[in-house]
Amino acid sequence: MTAGLALIGAALALVPSAQAEDGYDLWLRHAPLEGEALERLRIFAPRVEVELYRGDETPTLAIAARELDLGLAKLGGGTVASASGAGSAIALECGSDPAGAGEYTVRSNAKGIAIGGPGQLSCLYGAYALLRELSQGADPRSLDIVSAPAMPLRMLNHWDNPDGHVERGYSGRSIFDWWHLPERLDQRMIDYARANASIGINAVAVNNVNATAYVLEPRYIEKLARLADAWRPYGIRVFLSARFSAPRELGGLETADPLDPAVRAWWADKADEIYAAIPDFGGFLVKANSEGQPGPQDYGRTHAEGANMLAEALRERGTVIWRAFVYSEHDETDRAKQAYAEFIPLDGAFADNVIVQVKNGPIDFQPREPFHPMFGAMPDTRLMLEAQITKEYLGFASHLAYLAPMWEEVLDADTGHGATVAQVVAPVGMAGVANTGSDRNWSGSDFDQANWYAFGRLAWDPSLSSEQIAREWAAQTFSRDPAFVDAVVPMMLASRQAVVDYMTPLGLAHLMGTGHHYGPAPWVCELERPEWNPCYYHRADADGIGFDRTPSGSDALSQYAPSVAAHWSDPEAIDPAYLLWFHRVGWNHPMRSGRSLWAELVARYDSGVGEVDRMAQTWRGLAHYVDPQRHRAVSANLAIQQSEARWWRDGSLSYWQSVNGLELPAGTRPAAESLDHYRSLSFPEAPGN
Ligand code: GCV
Questions:
Q1: In terms of CB atoms within 10 Å, which of 160, 185, 193, 391 comes out highest?
Q2: Once rounded to an integer, what is the mean pLDDT over residues 408-418?
Q3: pLDDT for position 181
Q4: Shortest CA distance to 234 belongs to which of 92, 388, 102?
Q5: Euclidean distance between CA atoms 681 and 537, whole angstroms
Q6: Which of 5-9, 90-94, 343-347, 667-671 has the lowest mean pLDDT?
Q7: Is 364 a catalytic site residue?
Q8: pLDDT value at residue 20
Q9: Annotation: CATH topology of 502-547+584-680
Q10: Cβ(364) – ligand 1 distance below 6 Å
Q11: Quick check: 53 pLDDT over 50?
Q12: Ligand 1: which residue has its CA nearest to atom 11?
């Protein structure tokens, strides 16, 4: 059924005046086309009289039409009005099926282009897809796109506190202005929804998983309702991170025991109250019994009992997203094993409207981790993937690290249980810890926008390659000139490995500074909780380095399917990228490269530093393609990254030498400063802590 039809053309009056290139427009710049591409666009004659929605005009269709109007006007650079008047147009031909997941077609035909699909969101997503194609210079006369989301839930998790501080945020303060809501809705909230919708993101948890109870108070529900109303036409549902102990803190109950009838009643009433204000409220995201957060185990109950109690309160109206990121200082076993040990026995015990959200790796968003062993190992539980877009462990916003290759690595991983990670989570979804903030460019750096973009694109279609995503992002964000794209994309693709190499090469992990996680600190060994110490993870001494996770050590390997464990069990045969994650080896361990482990480690650090130097050089050569303001901003960050890559290399190598007593291989640059110097550095003001 076609609920509405809109015919629109590029309207001259909508051509915006030239905007400062400060990054605010993200990938939605729609920079004017030139030459042949512009000529081709002129087939869309200026049908200024917009034939609006015969029948049911909906806010979503109106947004799709407006986006097309504005986007075409910008792409036309104000010149489209000179077209012949032949009247080619874009038709929005979408149905009103509420079950439509946003699947769309974008097809050229004799009259112009038709965007279609079963539901209203099809037209919105189709409109953004069309603009994405045109922005890259595609020929509007030969489009034939058919697309559907691979995953139902494509979600951002904000670690934003209501007071404006963003945990692990490196781009300013929170974008959510709780203080002025509900009366004042910042334009940023609309621009944020546009950006998300343009890449298919359809759910947002607005507050930190280390949650305050008071976001469940009526005054906050009112604020959230205003956001939900604003985002609904963009296809975005709101979720709240809920504090498990809220019945005590807000409700005055003596317990938050999930089996206590008064507690259950409190949550049921709370859910009803929220649904009265927000009929399509998504549900609760919960961090429980993890890093000091309250949870069902405080009352001797399991994660499943806790989650199911909330699920019962939400009923079929919503979903509980229960995080599997748990570990305890009272648990002597390898931290990498603890989530699996706690959750696997609960497979099949979670209610139908519970999702268990699992981080990509078993520790915590490190530059490289093997995939989490829970993927594929809980066939009777709905699992979703949690990735981190904000770069807590990858150099914050000043280091250029394009994360799509990391997510592609985990999504493509074969779990050994008959499915890849992407196949395991596809029926459910993916969540990304957001990197947005009040900085004008949203993400703290221009290139960190690529990670927000890539997350959405991969959640929509995990089969997209990192390269394809980088190409489309770079063309839309900076310049569609092939010479630019061909230079910048390889630099992006190499950037994550560069960070791995200069921070945590060969499977090392969690060597960052205490608390803020900024800079190298492999020497830290004295913190109260063992697993907060970098030395817990690297285990370096005079004999060797690495965490033995084979049967002779923690045996974390046994949590993986045998076919997967077999790839990693032999230190001679393992992919060197995971060597020190799974094995403890001597400094002279022979590597496939022919070098000793020590020489290989040094070579990896140098390779990371060298790659960053190449990135800076590449970027210098691209000044011609990028506006001066953003070119300068990226250059400044690359200069920071060059110096911090050296700091990581020099600080780490100095420490390893203090442990192993080895000389650097001949011809290697010595560290710039003494180990004491590196150890003495402190950064109490580091952001995001
Ligand atoms: C929100 C890591 C981070 C914490 C974060 C936690 C989590 O430990 O350092 O800031 O807390 O992960 O994912 O819950």
A1: 391
A2: 98
A3: 98
A4: 102
A5: 21
A6: 5-9
A7: yes
A8: 52
A9: Alpha-d-glucuronidase, C-terminal Domain (3.90.1330)
A10: yes
A11: no
A12: 210
Residue 56 confidence (pLDDT): 61
The CA 292 to ligand 1 mean position distance, Å, reads 11
With beta carbons less than 8 A apart as the criterion, state whether 656 and 649 touch. no
Q: What is the mean pLDDT of residues 596-608?
A: 98
pLDDT, position 58: 87
Which of 160, 170, 244, 364 should be mutated for ligand 1, with most atoms under 8 A from CB? 364
CA of residue 469 to ligand 1 center, whole Å: 28
C-alpha span between 290 and 244 (Å, rounded) = 11
Cα dihedral 466, 150, 239, 228 in deg (nearest 10): 100
Write out pLDDT tens, residues 178-212.
999 999 999 999 999 999 999 999 999 999 999 99
Segment 552-571 shows an average pLDDT of 98
Cα–Cα distance between 355 and 376 in angstroms, integer? 14
Alpha carbon distance 356, 383 (integer Å): 5
Tokens linked to 101: 């997941």
Q: What token pair was written down for 201? A: 């993101």
Domain 153-464: homologous superfamily in CATH: Glycosidases (3.20.20.80)
- From 364, 409, 472, 644, the catalytic residue: 364
Residues of the chain with CATH 3.90.1330.10: 502-547+584-680
Q: Which of 378, 371, 385, 381 is nearest to 415 (CA)?
A: 371
Report pLDDT for 40.
85
For 415, the token pair is 């779990």
Locate CATH 3.30.379.10 in the chain.
2-147
Does CATH place domain 2-147 in 3.30.379.10?
yes
In angstroms, the CA 649 to CA 628 distance is 31
Active site residue 644: no
The larger pLDDT score, comparing residue 148 to residue 66, is at 148
State residue 44's pLDDT score.
Answer: 62
Q: Is 210 in the pocket of ligand 1 (CB under 6 A)?
A: yes
Give the pairing of strands 237-241 and 203-205.
parallel
pLDDT of residue 80: 53
Rounded to the nearest integer, the mean pLDDT of the chain is: 93
% of the chain beyond a pLDDT of 70: 93
Confidence of residue 273 (pLDDT cuts 50, 70, 90): very high
Q: Which of 291, 358, 369, 391 gets mutated to test ligand 1 (max ligand atoms within 8 A of its CB)?
A: 291
168 lines ligand 1 (CB under 6 A): yes
| pLDDT (tens digit per residue) in 63-88 | 998 999 899 889 988 765 433 334 56
Catalytic residue among 21, 334, 392, 531: 392
Q: Residue 168 above 70 pLDDT? A: yes
Active-site residue identified among 291, 541, 570, 572: 291
Q: What is the mean pLDDT of residues 301-310?
A: 98
CA of 336 to the centre of ligand 1 (A): 15
Let me know if 249 is a catalytic residue: no
Q: Is 689 in the pocket of ligand 1 (CB under 6 A)?
A: no
Alpha helix (H) residue ranges in 367-481: 404-411, 421-425, 449-460, 466-477
Q: Quote the ligand 1 centre to 407 CA distance (angstroms).
A: 18
Q: Quick one: angle between helices 449-460 and 404-411, nearest 10?
A: 30
Q: Which residues contact 675 (CB under 8 A, 6 or more apart)?
A: 523, 651, 654, 655, 657, 658
CA of residue 375 to ligand 1 center, whole Å:
20
